[in-house]
Backbone:
């Protein structure tokens, strides 16, 4: 057993039960034009050949089970893969339908043949593409152990790509596409450099299981990891199933082979990449931008939208844009894709005036300057000059008011676009550690906090679900977090704009000790108008709450009082990317 395997925690898999199995028999069949998976779903616009429950052998002899949907044609076609551990037969699963309904995506926009968060065969087959929906290793009918994120998936994805490329109906071009898990699996598979991988299209996907999922800011938080594993199940006798949430609790430091294996290496990606991101996805934003930065310069593009990943992925305009990318790299069509701007970004204003599709050659765009706004403890303001003497700000981490705010007032219309960060000089009274949560809010001219749903459905229930959590659905501004004992910076990877913590050691605080901490914040694109304000909040609790409704947020390790030292020898500041 390898060092990696020895670190993994395995349990017996759950029993798979199809909630709403597809009405398609195993083997080869042809679905006629107009066929519907279920009442209310999109009728097929063309005939589709289905190869269902095909067994594909991996390099170690384990067989995984895949479905292939392809147009009925004699021409060889490229293929798109939707790789995840979510069952390939569950496009009409009631729980998935209710999720999409909550977001505001009606059944009629999809055929039900799509894998959850993946490409819809109804559209892609009608435009000359095949779609492959695999059950990854150990899932439902696939053999082997169920692994979550890492090199095992990279190897299996590589093997599937190479198998598909030589099928007699394939033109030898294979691509990966999808959102969330179907996006972050792409960083791993593409990093393995399969020879026939022609392009990738990750939309909103974490790239480091430790930093983005298990321990954001060094604060252990396994709630969502446990949730995404809920749907990982096997049909028949149980198989070994990797418990990522349990691993997160057992290994709180990034100091072992397990977490290194679950960190992608997008710097190794050599195929063209069309990346899609947002500022508001509290699960995926950090990882998506980090991966984008790491991909070598050349054939890479990014579009930063102002909504949530699912409606964005299934919006007709964006599907057509994605097809233009794939037509160029998988079919060799000279359609002008190469003239697409490297960066297309959005700006929020939380007042109905969002701007999307702004073009640039880089992110942040040209003209951005990073400016420091220093915390003034006496006036509770953010200023361009540091105070001459220290005026500490204190709050009770276990009290009624567990935060401290600082305000900045705009004297002209200003854009903030890029990577914010905070540097604080902090002290803990009555404890040897601090969990610090940072929020940056926009206030209107009357001092009211502004926010925005990033989903189409603004119903009363969604107000309830996002009132104290569900941050992935309602955007309030850039955030950050850090456990102070995990403050050590990796000097090789830290830049003046973006701190990078090693998370491989614990440095507890001593009584009376004042230490500097740098806290990475989510990238942002924001417009503030004359007279409006920014409110920087430093808190002992997570003001944003959990990422998804129904998931508990992390429990902070806070006791006693937190002290923020401002001025004099202590240059506590908020650094912002201004584009004036």
Residues:
């Amino acid at each position: 057993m390898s060092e990696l395997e020895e670190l993994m925690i395995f349990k017996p898999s759950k029993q798979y039960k199809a909630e709403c199995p597809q009405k398609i028999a195993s083997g080869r069949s042809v679905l006629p034009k107009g066929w519907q998976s279920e009442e209310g779903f999109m009728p097929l616009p063309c005939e589709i050949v289905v190869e269902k429950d095909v067994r594909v052998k991996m390099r170690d002899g384990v067989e995984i089970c895949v479905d292939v949907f392809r147009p009925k044609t004699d021409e060889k076609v490229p293929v798109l893969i939707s790789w995840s551990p979510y069952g390939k037969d569950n496009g009409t699963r009631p729980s998935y339908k209710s999720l999409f309904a909550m977001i505001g995506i009606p059944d009629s926009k999809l055929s039900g043949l799509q894998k959850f968060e993946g490409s819809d065969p109804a559209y892609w087959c009608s435009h000359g593409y095949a779609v492959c929906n695999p059950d990854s290793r150990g899932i439902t009918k696939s053999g082997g152990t169920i692994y979550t994120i890492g090199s095992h998936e990279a190897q299996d994805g590589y093997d599937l790509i190479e198998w598909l490329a030589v099928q007699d109906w394939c033109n030898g071009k294979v691509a990966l596409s999808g959102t969330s898990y179907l996006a972050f699996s792409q960083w791993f598979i593409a990093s393995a450099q399969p020879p026939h991988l022609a392009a990738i299209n990750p939309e909103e996907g974490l790239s480091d299981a430790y930093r983005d999922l298990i321990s954001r800011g060094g604060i252990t938080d396994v709630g969502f990891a446990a949730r995404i594993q809920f749907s990982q199940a096997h049909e028949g006798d149980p198989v070994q199933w990797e418990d990522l949430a349990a691993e997160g609790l057992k290994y709180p430091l990034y100091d072992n082979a397990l977490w290194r294996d679950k960190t992608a290496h997008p710097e190794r990606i050599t195929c063209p990449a069309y990346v899609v991101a947002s500022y508001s996805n509290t699960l995926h934003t950090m990882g998506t931008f980090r991966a984008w930065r790491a991909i070598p310069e050349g054939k890479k593009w990014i579009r930063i939208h102002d909504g949530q990943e699912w409606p964005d992925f299934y919006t007709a305009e964006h599907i057509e844009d994605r097809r233009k990318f794939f037509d160029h790299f998988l079919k060799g069509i000279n359609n002008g894709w190469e003239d697409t701007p490297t960066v297309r970004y959005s700006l929020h204003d939380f007042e109905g005036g969002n701007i999307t599709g702004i073009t640039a050659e880089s992110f942040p765009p040209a003209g951005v300057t990073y400016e420091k706004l220093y915390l003034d403890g006496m006036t509770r303001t953010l200023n361009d000059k540091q105070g001459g003497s220290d005026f500490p700000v204190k709050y009770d981490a276990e009290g009624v008011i567990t935060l401290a705010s600082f305000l900045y007032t705009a004297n002209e219309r200003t854009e903030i676009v890029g990577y914010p960060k905070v540097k604080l000089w902090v002290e803990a009274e009555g404890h040897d550690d601090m969990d610090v949560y940072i929020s940056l809010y926009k206030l209107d001219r009357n001092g009211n906090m502004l926010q925005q749903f990033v989903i189409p459905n603004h119903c009363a229930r969604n107000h309830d679900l996002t009132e104290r959590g569900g941050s992935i659905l309602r955007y309030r501004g850039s955030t950050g977090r850090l456990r102070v004992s995990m403050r050590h910076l990796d000097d090789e990877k830290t830049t003046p704009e973006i701190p990078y913590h090693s998370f491989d050691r614990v440095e507890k605080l001593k009584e009376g000790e004042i230490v500097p901490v740098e806290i990475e914040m989510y990238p942002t694109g924001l417009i503030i108008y004359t007279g409006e304000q920014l409110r920087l909040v430093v808190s002992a609790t997570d003001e944003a709450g959990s990422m998804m409704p129904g998931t508990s947020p992390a429990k902070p390790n806070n006791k006693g009082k937190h002290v923020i030292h401002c001025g004099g020898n202590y240059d506590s500041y908020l650094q912002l990317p201004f584009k004036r």
Remarks:
- Residues 316-331 form the longest helix (16 residues).
